Amino acid sequence: MANFWIFVLITAISLYVLLDGFDLGVGILFGGVRDDARRHEMLQAISPVWDGNETWLVMTAAVLFGAFPTVYSAVLSAFYLPICVMLAALIMRGVAFEYRHHAVYLRPLWDAGFIIGSFLVSFIQGAAIGALSKGLPIVNGQYAGSAFTWLSPFSALCGIGLSFGYALLGAGWLIHKCEGDTRTYARRVFPYLLVCTFVVLVAVFADAVIEHVTILQRWTSVSWRYVFPAVATLATAGLLFIRRRQNDARPLLLTMLIFLCALGAFVASFWPYMIPFSITVAQAQAPAKSLGFMFWGIGIVVFPLTVGYTLLNYFIFRGKMKFGTGY
Fold first, then answer.
1. pLDDT 10s digits, 16-64
2. Which residues make Cβ contacts (< 8 Å) with residue 275, sequence separation at least 6?
3. How many C-beta atoms surround the C-beta of residue 206 within 10 A?
4. N or C: which end of the chain has fewer CB within 10 A?
């Protein structure tokens, strides 16, 4: 049962990062466009799917709460302040998304809220990943740090890196979905975002390996872990190659592959720890009866239905958008 819930958790996190990542990225790229019609087109590109994408964040929290309560408690204690800021940014972003269509004089205010909210959510998620990879002060299964222990130059670098990465996903989505000037804008910024993302990824990975002797030993002792950086490097080279061939689907798909490789490398570096070098899966899991009870609700009803709804939604709204008319 613990393995099943680890699978659900990794799936939920991966889908959230990939799906909500591109619409957060569109929000970041929103600030680089001044034409109101083009901004409206960018919002139309994500409007059928953006709120459904955030379902996977709720799924992640629900699985942690029910299946791995020790980790849920420690993570919430460590990131209480940034999580509150992130939730406020998500609310601000959602309200701005809906209100800007009806606003006249205050539209610049709602546009700013959408941009700032998207960046804050991206930065906080990246900073949290950085703080986790550095390790949290855990004593007897309880968080023993302060409200700002999570914030460091390394976590800030991770926050900036994930913001670049989400913007890269957003550019890939706009290339895939839009035409005309919006697609041209996304293609123009795509290579710069790719280089910035790749450089930060390499810097973060190198710092983590050098800083933690245990991680270095893990990577030198087991060769299969190198599959993740190797595939990510090939995907990056593929992105630089296909840029000249004007393919509209592959930039998004290859960028998603890079993200999956980064997630895979993160898990491979710390497994079986859920909080690096403090709490393992075995220590974090709920009692077997609790895991079994959850299985009949979330495991065979909510999780499959959410996967099915997501697939159906993306199938219905497949294909290109037409400027001025939407899907």
1. 999 999 999 999 999 888 888 888 889 999 988 888 898 999 999 999 9
2. 71, 74, 75, 132, 135, 136, 138, 284
3. 10
4. C
- Which pair of tokens denotes residue 321? 């958008």
SS3 40: helix
Domain ranges of the chain: 2-316
Quick one: residue 320, left, alpha or beta (phi over 0 = left, psi -120 to 50 = alpha)? beta
- Three-state SS at 263: helix
Question: pLDDT tens across 165-213, in order?
Answer: 999 999 999 999 988 888 999 999 998 998 898 888 888 877 776 766 6
Would you state the structure tokens that stand for residue 40, as one six-digit string? 């409206």
How far is 251 from 232, CA to CA, in rounded Å? 13
Q: Which residues contact 247 (CB under 8 A, 6 or more apart)?
A: none
N-term to C-term CA, the chain: 42
The CATH number of domain 2-316 is 3.10.450: no
Question: Under 8 Å CB-to-CB from 233, ≥6 apart: which residues?
Answer: none
How far apart, in whole angstroms, are the C-alpha atoms of residue 41 and residue 56? 25
φ/ψ of 149, rounded to 5, equals: -60, -35
- E strand or H helix that includes residue 63: helix 55-67
E-strand stretches of the chain:
138-139, 142-143, 273-275, 279-280
Q: What phi and psi values does residue 155 have, to the nearest 5 degrees? A: -65, -35
